[in-house]
């Protein structure tokens, strides 16, 4: 309710952007990172993983067939390296967002990602599970190879105490439940390792029960689930792709959300990047700018971008969603005509204590 309709709260307008891959829609991308969060420099550039799908008549249909795609970004050029995982390796019907970390010796990449659905399911489901796997990284001349991949293992499971395992909310707007988007974080205070994720509160009385979940590594391949860092019970259903950076001794937690997943009975913010700040990972967390909003899509293009990722140097990456629309698309054809399906221009934010703004 404290969100102000101030110009500095809005991202600049995005114009049409060139596609990275002509035959595919791309969204929700993330770089391979070092444990401190900085993108790793590999073969003269940065490896990115993006969700991908063939260009379908309805761009929303991409979620039902998403697969991770490996990209190598060198300067202004993007190189398509094909699917991240071999066919048949992942135990779901599709692959959703996560994070990827390079080992200190530079030879292994560990991938944390969301397995959506069940392999060979007759009807698309919204079951979501968190898995991890790893592969050897090799660079031969200009070729980057990740192989072989280990058999993916489920790493964190909902406990039905803090996080619900019930995914029967379905896929209608504002109703899909969450146990997805694992993001690795190593706490510089003590070296402990965590996975943040988008979750849904267990035992909630509201259909809008989104939360930022967290689990702590307690063994080489073991994770202990912990209470949520932040919840939006009664307010918002999806706090997506949460992640933490540390800046000037403070912890900054960020997530993305959309206007359409706020509870209709309460206040709603713009589709945008939201965040909180604390002195330690365990909190207490305070909303940035008094409201939690860092910036939103502009009123002239409220659907233009989504899925923001803040890097330690305060660059912000996202993908081009629906460009040039002021209202929801009236039909599938209009949605396809305006869907970007490619990386958006990077933004830069500034942080000063409990204040955050676009540079």
From TrEMBL:
<dbReference type="Pfam" id="PF02435">
    <property type="entry name" value="Glyco_hydro_68"/>
</dbReference>
<dbReference type="InterPro" id="IPR023296">
    <property type="entry name" value="Glyco_hydro_beta-prop_sf"/>
</dbReference>
<dbReference type="InterPro" id="IPR003469">
    <property type="entry name" value="Glyco_hydro_68"/>
</dbReference>
<comment type="similarity">
    <text>Belongs to the glycosyl hydrolase 68 family.</text>
</comment>
<protein>
    <submittedName>
        <fullName>Levansucrase</fullName>
    </submittedName>
</protein>
